[in-house]
Amino acid sequence: MLKIALDAMGGDNAPGMVLEAIQKACQIHPTTEFILFGDERLIGPQLSQMPSQLKKAVEFIPTTEVIGPDVKPSAAVRGYRNSSMYRAIKSVVDGQAQGVVSAGNTGAYMALSMLNFKTVASISRPAIATLIPTMKGASVMLDLGANVSCDAGNLVQFAVMGSVFAKFVLGLQKPSIGLLNIGSEDLKGHDVIKEAARILKEADNLNFVGFVEGDDIAKGTVDVIVTDGFTGNVALKTAEGVARMFATFMRQSFESSWLTKLGYLLARKPFLELKQRLDPRLHDGAIFIGLNHVAIKSHGGTDGVGFANAIGVAINTLQNQLNRHIVAELNRFTEMNDIIGVSS
Amino acid sequence: MLKIALDAMGGDNAPGMVLEAIQKACQIHPTTEFILFGDERLIGPQLSQMPSQLKKAVEFIPTTEVIGPDVKPSAAVRGYRNSSMYRAIKSVVDGQAQGVVSAGNTGAYMALSMLNFKTVASISRPAIATLIPTMKGASVMLDLGANVSCDAGNLVQFAVMGSVFAKFVLGLQKPSIGLLNIGSEDLKGHDVIKEAARILKEADNLNFVGFVEGDDIAKGTVDVIVTDGFTGNVALKTAEGVARMFATFMRQSFESSWLTKLGYLLARKPFLELKQRLDPRLHDGAIFIGLNHVAIKSHGGTDGVGFANAIGVAINTLQNQLNRHIVAELNRFTEMNDIIGVSS
Asked: Is this complex's ipTM strictly greater than 0.85?
């Protein structure tokens, strides 16, 4: 029986969307239970209207503080002891829940998760990893913003963690790994990624294919795209922006006249399928990978569908025992490095 | 009367697409002349079949070497003295042409252009700048790959150059400028962009609006997006990849059944307009900004339409006397900095 802690106050549409998400999640994962942390005045009335069988799956713990979007990570870790986010994280440390999901302030959430969960032994920095839709299906991408700058060792560890994540979430035997660069030739890029590539090339247990470029992300050239948090965050948000632009232009095109509206009626089936396939809400749920417990970040602007998907990622991650596999893989990697004399 | 030097051997589809581009460019810019550098065996026969009035506009100079896509910049600057790319650049230095266009090896082209054209006084590093389509129209983005890492002074100079470029190419009075970051709050990002932001905030003659994020690129939040060459290159290529993915999915959707094909017949008008509006070939032509002469880079995989557009960018840049305006703006900026005591 899994129990997931939910920060009901994080995100633009909280707490309404969190309660909506619980209802959806309970249908898909009927054996999972939830502990909900948030403002009683806002949540109490909505909670009381829930069907009684749902209520049974939800334990509500009132909290009085909220870590807003403008709170600095440094401030978040010093105070806010009765905030929904802190209490949700703490409930995992205390063994009341196995994982936590929040759509709140990313920097604060990462800082509090790191401080309370600690990094997996031999991991120096956790990363933010997520699935992104591609021409071929989906790829794992990390880091998406936890580490503004990275050294070669960080990138190598991200590659190992991303590979394990892709194995279990995408069901791949030996996920291909690419390092994001500005050219596929070995001579391109800065020293940190060249050094990371050198180490990864010698790792027999990883399927490292070399450097990939920005357009390889959507192409699905590799299963795991590894990059520093600055580049990864910019690339992911750039992709989201272009996707939104296309979606808007497509809608405008179909709505531009009665003729195009009629055209849409005829052509809508594959377009609705396409819309669903690329729906960002169905890719909601980034994992703070490299920590001893499962912390999932839902998109700040998400709704009930997206947050429910993020809950699904938490459940999936726990059921697959991702952390145990990461530790095992890192140990294998470290042993291999000891043998070939490479320090990561 | 303008004369443009063309590297006929650069790019995947050279020299055929260059000759095709000349024909298109001559129609749009009837008073412009061209000097074409390339392999006589490949170009001679095609050139002789051109209409005689076109031939008049084209001077052909045979060259024997080609700087291929795998040639390192360091090797390109040491040899290749009879290559089409080097000779085209040299013809500008010698005053035979006013600007050069190539779709060849970017690194070699930038290195040769820097070495032969030199940077504009007070510019420490040139950048690669281009127009990108957005929800609102188009924005200028730089650097797209000339400088893998940048200091704050580089980014400030890119902002000044990008602003001048946007003024003349987009016809804006006071283009808004944003620094690409992983959050819009002042506390986010690394020290280099924080320092650049601090300097830009004090520059009264620039319309600096602060940090922007990846999704602001497609939104068109600012007229000029400033970033280092690594991030800019990844972001631009990521955007291109997502755009291509959407274009493919849209085509597949319309082609999936006779019903959707019929739907397309009815709805095609705005979709064809959209296709044209986002056609990457119509945004082909990146400028090596900050050099004493005009060097335009066309996309390596471009065709005649794209290369003709890049020729148009060269002509436009020369007619607008972009370099003269950049020098004037930089001087103003330097004076202002002397007054407020900021070193860029």
From this structure: yes
Q: Which residues of B touch A266 (CB under 8 A)?
A: 259-260, 262-263, 266
Quick one: pLDDT at residue B343? 46
State the pTM of this model. Answer: 0.92
Residues 38-57 in B contacting A (C-alpha not used; CB under 8 Å):
none
Mean per-residue pLDDT, B17-42: 94
Nearest to B318 by CA among B109, B175, B168, B114: B168
Of the candidates B107, B149, B217, the beta carbon closest to that of A241 is on B217
Domains, chain A, with CATH or none:
3-120+290-320 (3.40.718.10), 127-280 (3.40.718.10)
B248 neighbourhood in chain A, CB within 8 Å: 135
Contact (CB, 8 A) for B172 and B320: no
Q: What Rg do the C-alpha atoms of chain B give, in angstroms? A: 21
B186-200 pLDDT per residue, tens: 667 788 999 999 999
Best probe of the B interface among A105, A144, A230, A283, by most B CBs < 10 A, is A230
The answer to whether residues B135 and B220 touch, using CB atoms and an 8 Å cutoff, is: yes
pLDDT at B344: 42
Token representation of residue B310: 């890049």
- For residue B202, give the H/E element and its range: none
Residues of chain A numbered 215-244 and touching chain B (CB < 8 Å): 215-219, 227, 229-231, 233-244
Establish if B248 touches chain A: CB-CB under 8 angstroms.
yes
CA distance A73 to A79: 10
pLDDT surpassing 70 at residue B185: no
Alpha helices in chain B, H assignment, sequence order: 16-28, 40-48, 52-57, 73-76, 84-93, 106-117, 152-169, 191-201, 214-219, 229-254, 258-277, 304-319, 322-340
Given B214, B241, B267, which is nearest A267 (Cβ)?
A: B267
* Distance, C-alpha B174 to centroid of its chain: 21
Q: Which residues in chain A are contacts of B148 at CB distance < 8 A?
A: 182, 189-190
Show the tokens assigned to B259.
């019903």
Check: CB of residue B144 under 8 Å from CB of residue B116: no
Q: How many CB atoms lie within 10 A of CB A12?
A: 12
Q: Does the beta carbon of B253 lie under 8 angstroms from any beta carbon of chain A?
A: yes
